[in-house]
């Protein structure tokens, strides 16, 4: 089959031998969520809440937040919706949270770190998420961006607990958190790999610079090794207390169909992407068995360069030709 003739996504992500990998959507608003549901997304794997409030000079009220999050839940009744708390800073500045004069914003007070500089904003956001979740049927998971340490993960879990939110998780997008994933994940219930930032920080290459695109490539074997380490860390944390940690991917890597197969082979158990990628990723995933995906993952992981891994894997996926 050529790419042009791939069937529309039927709403159930799976390999050809029946290994389920829910395919979720990345969204920034209730409107996006409606479109994602129409495209067949099985749920939301990333609600970028900062997108709901970009351009605002002041913190949104709890009522405004309840309405924004409720609109997303509304589109996915009974489905999983992963809400990310405000990821302000660097490429997504919010005037009420971040300092525009920081010399190096990608390494600055961004994401979860803004809880130190602006205490209270995150607590109120969690309160709003809990209120919106309380009047909808979605299965609501909440995660913090830019977690670097086990202590930060523990602090976030305590804050979620205080708000009555039962499923706290973290984004793994800082190499330190991937390396320490067993300890980090032992503090929370799930992880979602943010491969955009994980690649930027692993390769020390600004994700906003097109001139560095060859470094900013999630096929870089160093990035894949950190993803594999995170899956292993999640399993190890689960072995200690008997609670399985879901480890998903919500960065752009999940929207690359060949890489989606590799991620599945590495043991990632959900893929969240821009809705327009769902049909291609769904079709390519359905063209391989889990053992084949594992074989391709081993090839990509063992490659010495990004190009080598990508070429070798794509060559073994006839559906992409
Ligand atoms: C990521 O870093 O991969 C991610 C999903 O978050 P964002 O692109 O919003 O930083
Ligand atoms: Mg990120």
TrEMBL record:
Known role: General (non sugar-specific) component of the phosphoenolpyruvate-dependent sugar phosphotransferase system (sugar PTS). This major carbohydrate active-transport system catalyzes the phosphorylation of incoming sugar substrates concomitantly with their translocation across the cell membrane. Enzyme I transfers the phosphoryl group from phosphoenolpyruvate (PEP) to the phosphoryl carrier protein (HPr).
One GO BP annotation of this record: phosphoenolpyruvate-dependent sugar phosphotransferase system
Catalytic activity: L-histidyl-[protein] + phosphoenolpyruvate = N(pros)-phospho-L-histidyl-[protein] + pyruvate
Compartments reported by the entry: Cytoplasm
Domain (PEP-utilising enzyme C-terminal): residue spans on this chain: 14-288
Enzyme Commission number(s): 2.7.3.9
Catalytic residues, chain numbering: 250 (proton donor)
Gene name linked to the record: ptsP
GO molecular function, a single term: metal ion binding
Name of the protein in its database record: Phosphoenolpyruvate-protein phosphotransferase
Cofactors, names only: Mg(2+)
Keywords: Cytoplasm, Kinase, Magnesium, Metal-binding, Phosphotransferase system, Sugar transport, Transferase, Transport
Family: Belongs to the PEP-utilizing enzyme family.
Entire protein: shown range: 240 to 560 of 564
Primary localization: cytoplasm
Binding site for Mg(2+): 173, 197
Entry GO CC: cytoplasm
Residues reported in the UniProt entry to bind phosphoenolpyruvate: 48, 84, 196-197, 207
